[in-house]
Input
Amino acid sequence: MSMFSIFSVAGSGMAAQSTRLNTVASNLANADSVASSPEAAYRSREPLFATIRNQQGAGDPNAPGDGVQVLGVTESQAAIPRRYEPGNPLADADGYVYASNVNPVDELVNMISASRSYQNNVEVMNSARQLLQKTLDLGK
Output
């Protein structure tokens, strides 16, 4: 692994955590939404990550490096809660509305975790940059 691949790894981690933060923001924005059926209710979403390992292109500087990749975003299969609100314009024939299955506490924990992971990747990039700068200064 070259010193420059550190930037690729940390950059892919930052991109993944950015996707995670955007997903958390979407979940929190829809936490209090209601719908007229369970199928139409907002379901909590979570990104799915995978590790990228470059086994064959070790000598090729243009080969994709190690890191993390966002495979997609999955929807929660947890039950959709229903509430009896006959006065709500979205209520079904029985007077029920269907709420989102987003748990705001879990989302806040995810937000803090993603934010700290992003910050750690920024620190890795800054440390690598400083090490490269010190290496260049040795020749002076």
Summary: The chain has one domain: 5-137. The CA atoms of residues 18 and 79 lie 27 Å apart. The longest strand covers residues 67-75. The chain has two helices and five strands.
